[in-house]
Write a structure and sequence with these properties.
four-stranded mixed beta sheet, globular, 10 strands, Butyryl-CoA Dehydrogenase, subunit A, domain 2, Butyryl-Coa Dehydrogenase, subunit A, domain 1, alpha+beta
Length: 393
């Protein structure tokens, strides 16, 4: 890859930077991982999403014919650099922009694209993801939520768990088993389901961070029109893999550089006797290793973008990005607590907690990303089999 910016790229940067400067009053700050929503937080994110969309800045990697900018690899990089420089981010408003939209562009019928893509862009319809089940998390293909044909409908029964933003969502993209006699990777279908359909119940799940963005969703005799089937019946596993590849390649390395910079400042303040932690060469060496790891991840993410911009779904290389970035975030948080010592036990916003207790919050939150979007153990298997060509265990 050529990382020299062209005049067109620099013009793109200047245009976006100027737009951000003009509209920064609408921006939401970068959120702490798995932090609970503050009052008005969701509405603020929706407003920022819509303001970005008004300027044509909410789905820049989508093709132009679907409302994106068809941005190049370097323009995608510039986009996120400028958001981070401005102290903001593309707000999380469900999984329409990063996951379902690109999946529909690849697999959807013309009618599905016309119906759903415009309202994803405007945040008129919020999407959640119905994949994991209480007994089918890492082994996603073992899912048991059933869909039985009934005329022009599927009748869905079962439940999904760890469903982020289900309490806000208007729609869910849902994996269901439509042929229970087929091998487990066959007989699965991919449905688009209106969350207002009778028979759907959403129950919040509270994590140890105190946040409740996850949910369990129950389906009891839910009627779904057959026109909401994406791809062929019983061939939904291939559609699901496309969504998973987009999920595993979406920005796992972002925010790590900021956390490392904050870790440096923490090491300069924490005192060990008459000196600070930063004066220890061992501490500096460990932080330097974090910097090197983050740089390696940054270039891994650049490489992954290449496939998407060639019109291909992301490949198994995205598993390396997901695996290494989540492990790095976990190591950064753990090292911060080592520096803090007994102060690391203080919860977020506790009196006397350094940095408002955000490091203990990050430590509690850091294990989650190693589990969702396919556990890191699963990522090891994918990398071994599909990247390194090792035999299946």
């Amino acid at each position: 890859m050529d990382f020299n910016y062209t005049a067109e790229d620099e013009a793109f940067r200047a245009e976006f930077r100027a737009w951000l400067h003009k509209n920064l009053q609408y921006a939401t700050p970068i959120r702490e991982p798995l932090a609970d929503e503050e009052a008005g937080d969701w509405e603020a994110r929706i407003r920022w999403h819509r303001k970005l969309n008004e300027g044509g800045w909410v789905a820049i990697n989508w093709p132009k014919e679907y409302g994106g900018r068809g941005a190049s690899i370097l323009q995608n990089i510039i986009y996120h650099e400028e958001l981070e420089r401005a102290g903001t981010e593309l707000p999380f408003t469900g999984f329409g922009i990063p996951l379902l939209g690109p999946t529909l562009i690849h697999w959807g019928t013309p009618e599905q694209k016309r119906r759903f893509l415009p309202k994803i862009l405007t945040a008129e319809e919020i999407w959640c993801q119905g994949y994991s089940e209480p007994n089918a998390g890492s082994d996603l293909a073992a899912l048991q939520t059933r869909a039985v044909e009934d005329g022009d409908y599927f009748i869905v029964n079962g439940s999904k768990i760890w469903t982020s933003a289900a309490h806000h969502a208007d729609w869910i993209f849902l994996l269901v088993r439509t042929d229970p006699e087929a091998p487990k990777h066959k007989g699965i279908s991919y449905l688009l389901v209106d969350m207002k359909t009778p028979g759907i119940t959403v129950r919040p799940l509270v994590q140890m961070t105190g946040a409740h963005g996850f949910n369990q969703v129950f389906f009891e005799d839910v009627r779904v029109p057959k026109q909401n089937l994406v791809g062929a019946k019983n061939e939904g596993w291939q559609v699901a893999l496309t969504t998973l590849m987009f999920e595993r390649s979406t920005g796992h390395d972002r925010g790590l550089a900021k956390q490392i910079a904050e870790l440096v400042q923490l090491a300069r303040r924490v005192r060990y006797g008459s000196t600070t932690a930063w004066e220890s060469s061992a501490v500096r060496q460990q932080i330097a290793q974090f910097v090197l790891d983050a740089e390696a991840l940054k270039y891994t993410s650049y490489r992954q973008l290449t496939r998407q911009l060639k019109g291909l779904p992301p490949g198994p290389e995205g598993s390396m990005l997901k695996l290494c970035s989540t492990e790095l975030a976990l190591r950064i948080a753990a090292f911060a607590l080592e520096l803090l010592g007994t102060y690391g036990q203080l919860a977020r916003n506790s009196p006397f907690a350094l940095d408002g207790g955000k490091w203990s919050q990050r430590m509690l939150a850091a294990r989650g990303p190693t589990i969702y979007a396919g556990t890191n153990q699963i990522q090891h298997n994918i990398i071994g089999e599909r990247v390194l060509g090792l035999p299946k265990g």
